[in-house]
Write a structure and sequence with these properties.
By secondary structure, the protein is of the alpha/beta class. It is built from 13 helices and 12 strands. The strands form 4 sheets. The protein has a 5-stranded mixed β-sheet, with helices on both faces. Strands 8-5-9 form a 3-stranded antiparallel β-sheet, sandwiched between helices. It is globular and about 55 Å long.
Length: 385
Amino acid sequence: MFRSIVARGAIAAAGAALLFSATARADDVKLPSSMTFTAYDTGSSGFNIAVAVGKTMQERYKSSVRVLPAGNDVARLAPLRAKRAVVSAMGTGSYFAQEGVFEFGAREWGPQPIQLLLSIVDCNGLSVGIANDIGVKDLKDFKGKRLGFVVGSPALNQNALAIIAFAGLTKDDVKIVEFASYGAMWKGIINNDADGAFASTISGQAREAETSPRGLMWPTMAKDDKAGWQRVQGIGPFFKPHTVTCGAGIAKDKPIEMGTYPYPLFVAYGTESVDTIYPIVRAMIEGYDGYKDGAPGAVGLELKRQTMQWVIPFHPGTVKAFKEAGHWTAQDQAHNDGLIKRQGVLAAAWDAYLKTNPADDKFAEGWSAARKAALVKANMPDAFN
């Protein structure tokens, strides 16, 4: 069933190649009277931006958007899968869900057909913020310190490991402290239960930590350190070097080189219809002036700032809206088609693996091998094997 869904998504993406009338107007957008989004915890940049977008949808399109905060990736996606929410403001957990790895490699999940609406890259960075009272000046100084993890959130945890890998550090070089949610993890920094954690530099939690007695610093990750960046991208292929000019403790005239990737990523399931997703994307594009100043980072949702060829495909409804706006190329189409195909390969591998009736104690190991074999056969890259 999943394979046929993905196949229909690919067909819809191809069918969206038609050009649409340039005379489309904002009053053509018809949204449901109410919608539910999910996001990171209250106060996170993803939550704040989702609320700003929702406010504009209410004011301009008379659609009431409820934003549900959730402490981990599984909790953010579960309402979408159950059709209780339509969009999530996610992080790289959406990529892990697509790939069927970490928590999404469990029997009750598997590869998910996650697809993009819009995403953000702005002046902020995404890195491990470190309490300023422990004497860390460089990432290598973090060895032996306490690193915050969130239970059930591979995006945060894997990303934190990718960042410390810049200095050649691994999970064995730090002391892992687990928390129940993103918000609890950052409270742990303030309360001296941990020394560092992954975040966006503009998140409310990072700003709170920066003004606390412990303070906050962001270690430099020099763009020209090719070996360091190779280690980072070996764990998180979605990271790229970025000059950061905004966020907790960061001044525009004193930028810091660190990492970033599109965040938040507004995503939906590929099983959602074009008729559902297209008007949402239209509303986000055409309502941009209404929410761009509504939360730090929201300016990054501008159409011309979109990361067009990333690791997750755009939803066919998004493709339709982009083409209508004249923001789609043949190269974008080819890249997107390849990612849709990848989702189909992973779905087929999952279906075939489940039919072998794997034992619970061997499930993760067996799926990892089956997944790797399917991607090798399809001549597709794999960052997890």
